[in-house]
Amino acid sequence: MVRSYASDPVDPGLVDRALSNATRAPSAGFSQGWAFLVLDTPADVRRYWEVTADDVDDPDEWLSGMMRAPVVIIPCSSKAAYLRRYAEADKGWTDQDEARWPMPFWHMDAAMAALLILQTATDAGLGSCFIGVPTPRVDAVRAEFGIDPEYDPVGVVTIGHPADGGAAGSPTRRPRKPVTDVVHRGRWGGRGGHQASPSA
């Protein structure tokens, strides 16, 4: 996750490739209930930060570094698209009751699409970061950019060329958890948990 960018522009073809890859993400019932708001002009990027931050004219180090990203993409999810899809004949549900869903797959699938954007940027040698839209500013972002009311922003992806030290953040201060601490085989904890895979 890069938090400080150089001001160099990003190849528009790379942005298009990232978006195309995003649409290859899995989605429940092939609902494809996602959409992507792309801000890739200086004026539009500036508008995003003006709507979501109070100090764009005197930014702190974090905001200053993030504001230099030349591309901001807002992945959005549509719960309604999923509820409608699973009320179709081939799915067998006769209603659009949200209680049928064990998890909000509309958000999860949009997040997986966002991950493909991040991976595409990384593979191209660019920096990227996934952050949330500040909760008190979601309605303002909706209004500023005319986001369809059927869609909800699930976060923000910034893309650009990383500045020196651009990846500074929590990973520089916190150790990565060992695989053996997070992988459980057979059962969680106890004798069945925290087991590494057998050696070949």
List the helices and strands and how they pair.
Blueprint: H1 12-22, E1 34-39, H2 42-52, H3 61-67, E2 71-77, H4 79-85, H5 105-123, E3 127-131, H6 138-145, E4 152-153, E5 156-160, H7 179-182
Antiparallel strand pairs: 1-2, 2-4, 2-5, 3-5
Task: Please provide a written account of the structure.
The protein is α+β, with helices and mostly antiparallel strands and about 200 residues long. It has one domain (about 10-190): NADH Oxidase, CATH 3.40.109.10. The chain has 7 helices and 5 strands, in the order αβααβααβαββα. Strands 1, 2, 3, 4 and 5 form a 5-stranded antiparallel beta sheet that branches. α1 runs antiparallel to α5 and α2 (about 40-50) packs antiparallel against α6. The model is unreliable at about 190-200 (pLDDT under 50).
Q: Can I get a quick summary?
A:
With 200 residues, the chain is an alpha+beta fold. It has helices at residues 12-22, 42-52, 61-67, 79-85, 105-123, 138-145, 179-182, and strands at 34-39, 71-77, 127-131, 152-153, 156-160.
